[in-house]
Amino acid sequence: MAGEPAFADVVPGHLWEASIIHVQELYTVRDGGTIALDWLLASDLEDGFISKDDSTPLAVVVPGLTSDSAAAYVKHLAFSIASKGWNVVVSNHRGLGGVSITSDCFYNGGWTEDVREVINYLHHKYPKTPLFCVGTSIGANIVVKYLGEEGENTPVAGAASICSPWDLLIGDRFISRKLVQRIYDKALAIGLKGYAKLHQPVLARLANWEGIKKSRSIREFDHHATCVVARYETVDTYYRRCSSASFVGNVSVPLLCINALDDPLCTREAIPWDECRANKNIVLATTPNGGHLAFFQGLTAGRLWWVGAASEFLFALHDSSCMHRQKANDHVLHSSLESSIDKSPYVNFMEDGMVAPVTKDGPGNDDGSPSNHEIDGVQLSNRVGGRQQLEVSSEKDDEHASGSGNGSTAVPANRQGDGTNSNKLHEIIAPVKRSINQLARYQGRSVWLLAYVAFVTSWQLLGSLAFITFRKKFRNPLRAK
To answer: Where are the transmembrane segments (predicted)?
Structure first.
């Protein structure tokens, strides 16, 4: 039956780390498409699945463009979470994870129906299990867009967005600007054509196959394949409608967003800074370096900083009272532009390593001049400082905290006064702050190490060049004499 998983198609394997069970569950969605759900369990279970009454947290991972559970960064994230006692399931995109396309529908950068069906399926099958979600790259765009579309109705308790492109139209303009970006663009287009080739019988019937084969950029591929299959009028129409930046204002679950300002694919120009400030549920963390899904740590680049930061955020969220709880009533989708961008306090990561909440609201600050406050020993300031900035959107007391009257709370943060709000804010932010401190130290050491390596490996060449240059200069005066 459509919408029910094919439990007969459970494939045990050894894709993950030793002593961790890995099984694949093939889930059939309503339109007949097949999604590969790759499970990584923290406990040794005989049947390969968790019980319906299990309350162990479950992290749903949505990979990036043309990536699946075999990608190195997805393995790293899944094993990091599972090694700490959580269960993990990777929701692969259609046509990836070793499965074929079984319907006339393909995934794209804004296709949220598959994530919605998978999360609802997991929630109904494991009603006592807290669900968390992590999206990477284009998967992060899909996750944020889904959360904005669902609002209070999502069963997700918390989420993380890693290196999201945010605005696909701005990203398209950015990736065609300079030589380095165009190289990435061409490389991604090659990956998309490889994905298309895996499913040529279906795509050749639905889209412009000759145009797909000649595509040299993501935009050309989207023109010949994505827009045709998904029935978008133009590529720009597809980019505008599928950008998660337009849905940020309606996100109603605690959400950590991590972006590197030097990302060669997802430009800082697309980050919805003001919309994230206005939404009390969003933590926006930006670092000056990190690239795209990189943030490498150690001399051998054996670890990814964002994996630790995202997992620590979700673990701290699970241990607090700030987890989102699904509301039973329907919701209305609101645009992220409807809310005021100056209502909420936000947090700056200062040079001395402190995290300082900042707000223009409050007594004695009606004129908008810089003010200093102190909460729990942390100095608050309106000034933005430091090399790395961590912004946290968080409103004052919400008058609609218990407006539905059904006794349920969507996001319990900021509901019990300023003192409780500050404690909860520090409780959630502390792990991320520690991770950013650690990243800053690693970056400083790496710069000096690179300088040392550059000097050691190039001093002979530089000495030879200097000798040749000075020898010519000395020869010319002697010849003149």
So the answer is: 447-470
CA angle 419, 422, 428 (to 5 degrees): 140
- Active-site annotation holds for 263: yes
Catalytic residue among 68, 244, 263, 344: 263
CA 6 to chain centre: 29
Active-site residue, 292 included:
yes
Catalytic member of 67, 69, 137, 435? 137
pLDDT (tens, 9 = 90+) of the chain, 481 residues, equals 334 333 334 444 434 443 334 688 999 999 999 999 999 988 755 456 788 888 999 999 999 999 999 999 999 999 999 999 999 999 999 999 999 999 999 999 999 999 999 999 999 999 999 999 999 999 999 999 999 999 999 999 999 999 999 999 999 999 999 899 999 999 999 999 999 999 999 999 999 999 999 999 999 999 999 999 999 999 999 999 999 999 999 999 999 999 999 999 999 999 999 999 999 999 999 999 999 999 998 888 888 999 999 999 999 999 888 878 876 554 444 443 443 333 333 344 444 433 334 444 444 444 433 344 443 333 333 333 333 344 434 343 444 433 444 443 333 444 444 555 556 656 666 666 666 666 656 655 655 666 665 665 566 666 666 667 666 665 655 555 5
Beta strands in 219-299 (DSSP E): 255-260, 282-287, 296-297
Q: Which residues neighbour 315 within 8 Å (Cβ) at sequence distance 6 or greater?
A: 84, 431
**Catalytic residue from among 93, 223, 292, 324:** 292
